[in-house]
Design a protein that fits this description.
The protein is of the alpha+beta class. The chain has nine helices and 24 strands.
């Protein structure tokens, strides 16, 4: 089959199957598959809802004619067997971050509006994972029609713990061989060949329980908090108004302060407004804190004073990556103490150990302790290898662009594998309207036309990868 015949066949396949693709995305979006370790059990290691999403994806893959396997709930995979056991692979995930607040559409079903699909997971990553399964169906159908096997086995890995610990892929790599090459449809086009280091920690205050009765905000550690609430000992009627902050009575002698920010992924906080930071400033400006609470809030002001780590003394940049980012994700009141999570994405000229040392010293000055939760070192894949160039070239053919691969601050599955990168479907060159939210945001959505194009790009890219020597 020539390249032009391949492209035409891929286009016809997408049009023929598109309504089924949307229906399958919807079946996954309807599952609120947030990690739930409190209800984990054998066969459901990340909780019942993530398992339900994984099981649904595996059943979709089986219906599409793929050779499917559920690995005791840890992860799944679906194969198109090839002439060689060597694998070209994709990896996506069916778990999600919490819906959070601010939705104008129902988060747990797919809504079609003006050429866009809206729903939690449509972009990250239930929609793209579904595309990968249909790309495999293309080759499974072709093999049945022609009787010819692919040169390599095509494997679609289906994860369901990506948004938290990525324990699923660690389990997979402990039990299965690495594919020869892999891409993850869980990021941006044209191609991501490097990812910053990922450092997250929890800062805990000294015991405080005087003026601030409760302080809660954010939904996950790897996102800028879109909303936060504090209950304080004060007369609500005497407190001043402030932009993005609601003030109301919370009972006799108590006031509830609710801040409304602008959420964003922790790796791209530019333009966001952290709701926790809004409350920190309000509490300090209006002296709604005891001396011990003030000490903590002054540390918080350093956390929320910048998103490049400059107020924490960790700002830096190298030749490969954009500047370091650092945000406060969630705050909670536990056992009379405040717990603030931090998330930093760092380049190659600083280490997680150095971030811990500098931030830990500042925390100690304000009576706080720090516990590092995750530290993943940066990684880079050579963007000039034939396989990586194949992906970029295919993308450019479909878009008429001359784009180059790049590095990001986010962490995807790709960083766990020996060769590969993250490959769409989001495309900064084709921005979405303001009413459509990004991944991890309210009203998360994506263009149907861009999803259709992405599926064609994946099919043609896989076919071309199959022609390379591995």
């Amino acid at each position: 089959m020539t390249d032009e015949e391949l492209k035409q066949h891929a286009k016809e396949f997408v049009e023929k199957n598109w309504e089924d693709v949307v229906a399958d995305i919807d079946s996954l979006v309807r599952i609120n598959s947030v990690e739930d370790l409190d209800h984990a059990e054998p066969g459901k290691p990340y909780g019942p809802a993530p398992f339900e999403a994984l099981d649904t994806a595996v059943k979709i893959a089986a219906r599409l004619g793929l050779d499917v396997h559920d690995c005791d709930g840890h992860i799944g995979y679906a194969d198109v067997p090839g002439a060689s056991p060597k694998q070209i692979a994709t990896i996506g995930h069916t778990d999600i971050v919490p819906a959070g607040t601010g939705w104008t559409f129902e988060p747990f079903k797919v809504t079609r509006k003006d050429g866009y699909l809206i729903g939690r997971g449509v972009l990250d990553d239930k929609g793209p994972t579904t595309l990968s399964l249909y790309a495999a169906k293309f080759f499974a159908d072709l093999a049945r029609e022609t009787g010819e096997q692919l040169p390599y086995t095509l494997r679609c890995i289906i994860g369901n713990n990506e948004e938290t610990e990525m324990a699923d892929v660690e389990w997979y790599l402990d039990n299965f061989d690495q594919p020869e090459f892999l891409f993850s449809p869980d990021a941006d086009f044209p191609l991501i060949y490097g990812e910053k280091g990922g450092w997250s920690a929890t800062v805990t205050s000294k015991p405080v329980s005087d003026v601030i009765v409760d302080f809660e905000g954010g939904t996950v550690g790897n996102a800028v908090a879109g909303e936060a609430t504090a209950v304080v000992r004060a007369d609500a009627s005497t407190l001043p108004t402030a932009d993005r902050i609601d003030v109301e009575s919370a009972g006799e002698g108590l006031a509830r302060l609710t801040a409304h920010g602008i959420g964003a992924h922790a790796s791209t906080p530019q333009g966001s407004i952290n709701a926790i930071g809004l409350l920190v400033d309000y509490l300090l400006q209006n002296e709604l804190c005891s001396a011990d609470e003030k000490d903590f809030l002054q540390f918080e002001r350093l956390v929320f004073g910048s998103t490049d780590g400059s107020t924490l003394g960790i700002a830096c940049q190298d030749e490969y990556f954009d500047p370091l980012t650092c945000i406060g994700g969630t705050i909670a009141t536990k056992d009379g103490r405040f717990e603030q999570t931090l998330d930093s994405r760092y380049p190659t000229n600083i280490t997680g150990e150095e971030i811990t040392r500098r931030v830990g010293a500042l925390a100690a000055e304000h009576g706080c302790t720090i516990h590092v939760d995750i530290d993943m070192v940066p990684f880079l894949t050579d963007p000039d290898t034939p396989a990586m160039q194949t992906l970029v070239r295919t993308y450019n053919e479909y878009t008429g662009r001359d784009a180059k691969g790049f590095c990001i601050g986010g962490g995807t599955y790709a960083r766990h594998f020996k060769a590969g990168g993250s490959f769409g479907p989001n495309d900064p060159a084709f921005p979405m309207p303001d009413w459509v939210g990004a991944e991890h945001s309210a009203d998360e959505g994506f263009s149907e036309e861009q999803l259709k194009r992405a599926l064609q790009i994946y099919i043609v890219s896989i076919a071309r990868l199959m022609r390379l020597e591995f």
